[in-house]
Amino acid sequence: MSGRATVTEIETFPLEFVLPDGGYGASKVINAARVATIVKVTTSDGVAGWGESFGPPRLTAPFLAEQAGDLLGRPADIREDHILDRVSVGYHLSGSGLHIAAASGIDIALWDAQARTFGVPVAQLLGGRLRDRVDAYASSGYVTATRDLGEFRERMAAHADEGFTAAKIKIGISPAEDRARTAITRELMGDDGLVIVDYNSNNTRASLQRSLARIRDLDPHWVEEPLPPDDAEGWRSLRDLGLPLSGGEALYTRFGFRDPIAEQRFDIVQPDVAKCGGFTEAQAIRQLAATWNLQLSPHCWGTGVAQAATLQLLSAVPRAPFGMAGGTPLLFEFDRGFNPLRERTLATPIKPENGTVAIPDGPGLGVTIDENWLRANRLEQHSVLAQ
């Protein structure tokens, strides 16, 4: 153990921005605020690593405080044991929820710190940097209080003007409104563009069937979270629909993904690195998906830190089972909703370029954190400092 860098300090930056005009969201719920908690881990080598924990900061803070205290003085290169011990020892808390989201931010920061120590991008530690750029889809078409289709069209047209030829929209409202929103998006993305529809589980099997009957001819690239994640039998009943299904943003750790992947309930696997257990568990989930020959497309709806982490993960995803020609491209979820937290956490925000995104190539996550902005805007009463 001698000579190994240890964790000397963990500090958190809980963030909240109340959205104007009542906010926006999905058919199930409109979000009044954008939230996240940024995590900073400092090692005995003087290296700082950064991560992000998904979830309401006020609820995540106690988990981060408890886990930070446990980690002080421990080797900074031990990550998988930390996550699995969290699931094992904390089994009364279940293998999901905010204590895993808290651990995710710490895990990302530990990977970032080690990669920065070596002077390489995190992707090199995840198996090697295989790509410098990735295709992106505009994650948008959110539900607002007005649900005005004219406003919806303007929003989606703006993404087409940005150069996006792929977009994800929120549906699950009613068969007629689902049809209208999907038809507008198909028109704007073009016949060869990709249109992804996201129900956010706002369905019964019967309501889903009615909605899908109205949009099937519009060729959805995939159907996201058509049913609640716990409705295992419902997901099994969808196998004969003949449409690609995706899910996973509401699942945690390899154990939460094990049965859905093994039973192939969905075709596209969507772990969120800031929620599922950080890079450690996202890697395990990626490998499970590859074992069952399923597509990976991570969920990403956080700040610039979560974006950078997701891009590092995508950079290292092998192209198998595809060879030199053909294959389905990897896709990065680029949230286009208004979110100052996403824009301000990084000194240089990540930007789309004609429907693609460059993967940062600097050490660690490859980005520079705007620490001064974080300190000026965090919720001080919910911040954690363990040293």
TrEMBL record:
Q: Which residues form the Mandelate racemase/muconate lactonizing enzyme C-terminal domain?
A: 149-244
Q: Which domain of life is it from?
A: Bacteria
**Coiled-coil regions listed in the entry:** none
SUPFAM superfamilies named in the record: Enolase C-terminal domain-like (SSF51604), Enolase N-terminal domain-like (SSF54826)
Q: Keywords assigned by UniProt?
A: Lyase
InterPro entries linked: DgoD-like (IPR034593), Enolase-like_C_sf (IPR036849), Enolase-like_N (IPR029017), Enolase_C-like (IPR029065), Mandel_Rmase/mucon_lact_enz_CS (IPR018110), Mandelate_racemase_C (IPR013342), Mandelate_racemase_N_dom (IPR013341)
* Pfam families given in the database record: MR_MLE_C, MR_MLE_N
Q: Which PROSITE patterns match?
A: MR_MLE_1 (PS00908), MR_MLE_2 (PS00909)
PANTHER family linked to this entry: D-GALACTONATE DEHYDRATASE, D-GALACTONATE DEHYDRATASE-RELATED
Query: What name is this protein filed under?
Result: Mandelate racemase/muconate lactonizing enzyme family protein
